[in-house]
Amino acid sequence: MELEKLRADMVAAMKAKDKPRKEAISSLVSAAKKVAIDEGCRDDIKPELVDRVILKELKTVKEQIDTCPDSRADLKAEYQFRYDVISEYAPKQMTAEEVKAYIQEKFADAVATKNKGLIMKSVMADMKGKADGKLINQIVAELCK
């Protein structure tokens, strides 16, 4: 995801006077800028960095939804709206079947050792941002049985 696309969508939401959407997109822009500054690439923000930030924000909002008490339906609805907006920009994640096939194809030699630590080390380096880490962990554990 390009940072400029996020900025353009944020401006469009401002012009449409859609405050909740503008705030959700604005949080993505500011988080991407902060990470870029922390990593020392303030002027040249790469799409991979923006994708990484979007996935992190998506995970954070998902945790907010999960931990929000049922008595606070208004807050839960606000979090769900943010989650929906952020997921529009999130890069497509691999499904469980795709992850399993990918691991068995690319890392057949590591899977044959049944060493979960070795498999996770090589798989996570290659699949970072392509699939959820928990999902990868479950599949690797299943393959090591």
What would your notes on this structure say?
The protein is mainly alpha-helical. It has helices at 3-15, 19-38, 47-67, 73-89, 96-106, 108-113, 116-127, 133-144. The mean pLDDT is 87.
Summarize this structure as a short list of keywords or feature phrases:
globular; 8 helices; mainly alpha
Q: Provide the structure class.
A: mainly alpha
Query: Span from first to last CA?
Result: 38 Å
Main sheet overview:
none
Multimer state: single chain
Instruction: From the alpha carbons, calculate the radius of gyration and give it in angstroms.
Output: 18 Å
Helix content class: over 70%
Number of helices: 8
Task: Say how many strands there are.
Answer: 0
Order of helices and strands: HHHHHHHH
Kindly state the mean pLDDT as a whole number? 87
Percent range for β-strand residues: under 5%
Q: Which runs of at least 5 residues are low in confidence (pLDDT < 50)?
A: none
Report the principal-axis shape.
globular
Secondary structure: elements and pairs:
Layout: H1 3-15, H2 19-38, H3 47-67, H4 73-89, H5 96-106, H6 108-113, H7 116-127, H8 133-144
Short description:
With 145 residues, the chain is mainly α.
